[in-house]
Amino acid sequence: MPASITRPRLSIVAPCHNEEEGLDLFCRRVAAAAAEACCDAYEIILVDDGSTDGTWEKISALSRDHEAILGVRLLRNHGHQLAATAGLATARGERVLLIDADLQDPPELLLMMMAIMDRGADVVYGQRQRRQGETWFKLTSASAFYRLLSRLSSVAIPRDTGDFRLMNRRVVDILLSMPERERFIRGMVSWIGGKQVALPYERDPRYAGETKYSLRKMVSFALDAITSFSTVPLRVATWLGLITAMVALALLVFTLASWLIGHTVTGWASLMAAITTFSAIQLIGLGVIGEYLGRLVQEHKGRPMFMVEAIIRHGDLAELPVDFASLPPQAKREAMDAATVDKTAQRKQSGRSA
């Protein structure tokens, strides 16, 4: 690593999708918390996940005004988990805070997280005690999801937690080396292990804009989480098949016995009910198998997890390798270092020329 490169002690990664209204306040609060936690040795990485409003223009303006802010623009909307992964891949800090840009997770908790990590923690994650500003349906469905996941998963995933967490460099590098594309970051971090400490807090209401998680996205996210960390649904399908086979065998014996003693059983309704029940169970089993098979197909394709259109620092576009998304973690940091040095040298040269 060149001697001129000083990597930050802390990187703060925030995925953004149509967050134009709240970015100014978010950056002010995050910068104040980071400055208190580690002076000026930090960077703030804002990832524009295919926004359709003025989010990228706002990020570009903030990067010109604040030296610590770096903007990453994805080529299209990849979803929250992949946008977060793109930000983590860009981060160069020895510690990385993952936080949403909607200000529901208070940035001021960073100081406490840093203190806990100073005492030996590998990960410090926020655990929600209360969730203000959310509907009864959202609270109930989220609670049911976390409890179902904890029962199904072979990995102990803490309940009532999101992606709001501080991780050390080792955990981030392991996380980035994991190749799956259907990502459930909070579960993947739990799978890594190490010393992981909960920090209870109360979640605030969204500062501006609307939630980006529709019911369809929530269901898709839940399926990704369950299929990524549990094979129990496959076993349930197997058991349903076995139970159905035993019931069908019992019905066959009953039918043969009735025929032998001369009591033929007729009844269109009962026949249709049996056919419908067995067909439904078979379709459920096929659907579960299809979910896992579909994910295997997507993984086998080997497509990049995300596509970066532009990275901006100090108002300048950084030039990165075309295959940046597929580089290993160390190579990503070296590419970011080289881009930063090149732009710094260009600014100095233009200043001398002027």
UniProtKB/TrEMBL annotation:
<dbReference type="InterPro" id="IPR029044">
    <property type="entry name" value="Nucleotide-diphossugar_trans"/>
</dbReference>
<keyword id="KW-0812">Transmembrane</keyword>
<feature type="region of interest" description="Disordered">
    <location>
        <begin position="335"/>
        <end position="354"/>
    </location>
</feature>
<feature type="transmembrane region" description="Helical">
    <location>
        <begin position="267"/>
        <end position="293"/>
    </location>
</feature>
<keyword id="KW-1133">Transmembrane helix</keyword>
<dbReference type="InterPro" id="IPR050256">
    <property type="entry name" value="Glycosyltransferase_2"/>
</dbReference>
<keyword id="KW-0472">Membrane</keyword>
<keyword id="KW-0808">Transferase</keyword>
<dbReference type="GO" id="GO:0004582">
    <property type="term" value="F:dolichyl-phosphate beta-D-mannosyltransferase activity"/>
</dbReference>
<dbReference type="Pfam" id="PF00535">
    <property type="entry name" value="Glycos_transf_2"/>
</dbReference>
<dbReference type="InterPro" id="IPR001173">
    <property type="entry name" value="Glyco_trans_2-like"/>
</dbReference>
<feature type="transmembrane region" description="Helical">
    <location>
        <begin position="236"/>
        <end position="261"/>
    </location>
</feature>
<feature type="domain" description="Glycosyltransferase 2-like">
    <location>
        <begin position="11"/>
        <end position="172"/>
    </location>
</feature>
<protein>
    <submittedName>
        <fullName>Dolichol-phosphate mannosyltransferase</fullName>
        <ecNumber>2.4.1.83</ecNumber>
    </submittedName>
</protein>
<keyword id="KW-0328">Glycosyltransferase</keyword>
